[in-house]
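Minutes, project check-in
Item: structure for the 286-residue chain
Input as provided by the requester:
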Amino acid sequence: MVNESPDVPPRRRPGRRVRPTRRGRLVLIIGAVLVLAAGAAVLVPLLTTEPKTEQPRTLVIPEGWRASQVYAAADKALGEPAGTTQKAVATADLPLPAEAKGNPEGYLFPATYPVTSGTTPESLLRYMVDTAVSRFGADHITAGAQRNNVTVYQTVTIAAIVQAEADSASDMGKVARVIHNRLDRGMPLQMDSTLNYALNRSTLDTTTGDTKMDSPYNSYVHKGLPPTPIGNPGEQAMAAAIGPTPGPWLYFVTVAPGDTRFTDDYAEQRRNVAEFNNNRRGAGHG
């Protein structure tokens, strides 16, 4: 007879199955229920989806856009009826300079703005104006305006003309210099962009009748700057307005794309304008 170690369990007879007692079966059932319950507790948070964070849309305001264009784009982005954003100017409590007299033209800063379901015309306008006031209130802008003997608001007006008139960013400094030189000499600016603003259009074709129109934005008739900016300038145009390129120029014309000619000689300017007109006729304009 072989003695078995007490640490070794006794051998089962071949073919014999272990059957749980009634009490054992009850314990197994309860245990299974507990396991299932625990599993369900783990699964619940996995099956529960948290609300997704709203992804904001964006509204892009290009440099040089007029307020009317900004209003229309804002209405579209917000799904509002046409004219809603323009009407909101009166109730938006915008931090504009006193010179603006409540008109945000020039202070609807060109940038990309987030638009969510909570965005209102008033909040969007305040965002734009707050951005402009912050950028235009920088020390170097204030110092540049003082150096040029103009206010910051007038600098924004100059920058808006620069934005509209310059054929390229590299021309902005020279265009700004022409504006300052003409202002210093008491000459009318004679900028077609101011006429276009008054007529709510964009064209290179200015007629003699246009230059005689009765409007405070007619810079052929009225000396000095127009009463408001004629658009919303970007930072490059503002930089040109406070730091124009040194030079004697009083005239300029873009004879062809990429070919803007600056001069202080009126006879030369007339020749350049004649070349511009010939190029326009050759291209089927006029």
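Outcome recorded: Confidence is low (pLDDT under 50) at residues 1-49.
No further action items on this chain.
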